[in-house]
Amino acid sequence: MSTLTEAPPPLTPPAPETKKPPRKRGRWTPYWLLLPGILWLVVFFAAPMIYQASTSVQTGSLEEGYKVTWHFATYWDALSEYWPQFLRSVAYAASATVLCLVLGYPLAYLIAFRAGRWRNLIMILVIAPFFTSFLIRTLAWKTILADGGPVVGALNTLHVLDVTSWLGWTAGDRVLATPLAVVCGLTYNFLPFMILPLYTSLERIDGRLHEAARDLYAKPSTVFRKVTFPLSMPGVVSGTLLTFIPATGDYVNASLLGSADTGMIGNVIQSQFLRVLDYPTAAALSFILMAAILAMVTVYIRKSGTEDLV
Amino acid sequence: MTNTTKTQPGGDVRLAGISKTYGSFTAVHPLDLTIPQGSFFALLGASGCGKTTTLRMIAGLEEPSGGTVHLGDQDVTALPPYKRPVNTVFQSYALFPHLDIFENVAFGLRRRGIKSVKKQVEEMLDLVQLGEQARKKPHQLSGGQQQRVAVARALINHPKVLLLDEPLGALDLKLRRQMQLELKRIQTEVGITFVHVTHDQEEAMTMADRVAVMNAGRVEQLGAPADLYENPQTTFVANFLGTSNLIQAEVDSRSGDDVVVRAAGDKLLLPASRCAVPAQAGGKVLVGVRPEKVGLTHADEAGSIPEGRNRITGRIGNSSFIGVSTQYVVDCAACPDFEVYAQNIDRDARLVPGADVVLHWNPAHTFGLDAAQDIDAGVAEGEAA
């Protein structure tokens, strides 16, 4: 090629010069553009994952140092010791997710279809809590649910606490340090993650579809059941995922609003890492949690059939 | 609900004093309209004239500010849309994207608690030639197919009245022509009253038995397409439906069944029966004639024009050859842009821009309108449509 360009018949050299370099650059451009993303993934996802995975199969002690011994029994030991916390995490997160859906759907519906000029204001109110620290907001719930506070007093007067205590959600006339408090905290903290995707999918629904359904003999409740709700399924699915996944791994609500009896798997992992300093168990627990969530989410998405929705 | 649709054997749609206001804006002025059972009725007008609002009030999707809607003997004014024996084909079809074609068509039947829908749905899909597509989703179909699904979804319920809101607006010209015939065929076949909203005057005239021309929230004129075209009662109708040459004139005298008027020195005859206003001597009147009714003769041949025809002299300003006809714009003293559509049978080579000509037509083709109106009303709307 170089001989061609050096010995120029005046008309031919420009052709290869203008044709070839772009083709070469064109072939590599996509990879160069991908590079930042790939680097990001390697540094912040792949590397930590591999490091954790190797930690989870190490044995040893803090004094002697840890070595990779392919000790997979750590997984089994961790699971058999901490399965109650796993179950509790899933139960609390699922309850909080259902509560978020029940509270968030009407609000998202209201913002999308009924709010009119108040729409932006309500949206700001939904997002406003993010301007304060997660920790401070959760601490505020400690005050709200404090023993002898107005909320507990009201619930006591209405005999709601008798029912919840009988169900095992509260203890006597306390709300703080009970499962109910933890679920309340989770619901409160993750509610915006439910409302925003719900709102987005509801807002996209063409109003004429509601009219068409009403025109085709559907009562308002049927319009909701047969048209609005099915069309909002993408929002329901992404909202529940955005709520359930972080709620399962959360430990702040359980440690601030709960007690020793309401520990979630996040609390165990945190204490194994930072207090007990048993790194292999903590890493193994993290992987089990990840696998469990992945499995549940896969089944859920398959069941809800959202891939098929427009 | 199914009972009410069954026990009432059809009937006319009667709107009595129906109106709709949004704040200070009046979309529909109090309107009385009777749509005969089994007719193909068109509401024709430019956008914003209140035709869609009127349709939506019949459907129950819009609550009237005043007046009543009757279907046969039943007053349906207060009924919500899902209790009215009326179905709508929406402008952009509004097919349910999460349901397949079969379920879209079956929607109305299922809501009325009908269990065995399969046979009916299949028959209906065959009627609109979509039997093969039953299990596809709406977005997998072409515009024309979606349109047919929308018609099938409404018709399967055997409504007393089918409302069509610009049903062909999203289709291209060729498909639109085809669907016009198709809809007309279906209407004749099922015999249901069709109320069709459109801004396309050609569409309204080809499809409908009766047309109501609407303008600014009022019905300007109601009648059969040919009647509206030949006997417009207002300048809006004269200009919106096709083209009209309107000439400002003064009433001179009566001669038998004709009114003699003067326009810029020319004397014209106008049948008294075709004059929309009482003609009194000295009064003003707008004289109109359609461009295809007018003959065009070179000034040198003026002697060959038969006696008794209305004549106006002028000079050709412009001509355009269309194929079947040639369209001339003639500059006359009485009317600066007089349009003439001449069939290309024996073309006179002298009829070129600049030539002096005589325009002449049978006085029976002349119509008279109230001169107090805006002479250009409906011109812009007609062109936009």
Q: How far apart, in Å, are the first and last alpha carbons of chain B?
A: 40 Å
Domain count of chain A: 2
The CATH topology annotation of the largest domain in chain A reads as MetI-like fold
Q: Record the strand order, biggest sheet of chain B.
A: 6-7-8-3-9-10
Low-confidence stretches of chain B: 1-9
Number of strands of chain A: 2
Q: Estimate what percentage of residues of chain B fall within beta strands.
A: 25-35%
Per CATH, the superfamily of the largest domain in chain A is MetI-like
- Helix proportion of chain A: over 70%
The helix-strand sequence of chain B is: HEEEHEEEHHHEHEHEEHHEEEEEEEEEEH
Shape of chain A: globular
Biggest β-sheet: strands ordered side by side in the sheet of chain A: 1-2
What is the approximate shape of chain B? Answer: elongated
**Name of the level-1 CATH class of the largest domain in chain A:** Mainly Alpha
**What percentage of residues of chain B falls in helices of 4 or more residues?**
10-25%
The most extensive interface between chains reads: A-B, 20 and 28 residues
Terminal CA distance of chain A: 53 Å
Return the average pLDDT of chain B rounded to an integer.
89
The CATH architecture assignment of the largest domain in chain B turns out to be 3-Layer(aba) Sandwich
Question: Unreliable stretches of chain A, pLDDT < 50, 5 or more residues?
Answer: 1-19
InterPro entries (chain A): MetI-like (IPR000515), MetI-like_sf (IPR035906)
Membrane topology (chain A): Multi-pass membrane protein
GO cellular component, one term (chain A): plasma membrane
Biased composition (Pro residues) (chain A): 7-16
